[in-house]
Write a structure and sequence with these properties.
With about 150 residues, this protein is an alpha+beta fold. Helices cover about 30% and strands about 20% of the residues.
């Protein structure tokens, strides 16, 4: 099985929130899904943080680069529907949900800050507030009700 290569996977996910998120697009549901991915991929401690309109999932292990059956380093996992058999049959990685439904997405490590989407909204202080000391990776996404 190969990584699914939909021409516009983000738009596909965005057009079907009930299919990918059950009760619709909400930041807590997206954060919870990403927490599950991080735990399955080896994180021992995972936090969900909020700072203003930003939500973040921070983990003590870098789940985005952890070995798995369908490796998809950033930014691919933010733009494609990637199979995730480690989590179960018919499961997928959930980083694409942040890209599809949030206004901005930023991936942070202690060494690097990568803006995935919404560059005009993702200022340099995002990682300062949403990557706690001692954590290896944070995935932050900006949410607004509008």
């Amino acid at each position: 099985m190969d990584i699914l290569t939909l021409d516009d996977a983000v738009e596909h996910v965005r057009s079907k929130p009930d299919m990918y998120l059950g009760g619709g697009a909400r930041p807590d549901v997206i954060a919870q899904a990403i927490v599950g991915d991080a735990l399955v991929l080896g994180a021992g401690r995972v936090l969900v943080l909020r700072h203003g309109p930003w939500w973040a999932v921070a983990a003590d292990a870098d789940w985005l680069t952890a070995p798995c059956r369908f490796p998809s380093l950033p930014p691919e996992c933010f733009r494609r529907i990637v199979p995730f058999p480690e989590a179960g049959v018919n499961c997928m990685r959930h980083e694409i949900l942040a890209t599809a439904f949030a206004r901005a997405v930023v991936s942070c490590t202690p060494e690097r800050r990568e803006v995935i989407s919404g560059a005009e909204l993702a200022d340099a202080t995002v990682c300062e507030h949403l990557l706690p000391a001692g954590f290896a990776r944070s995935l932050a996404f900006m949410w607004s009700a509008s």
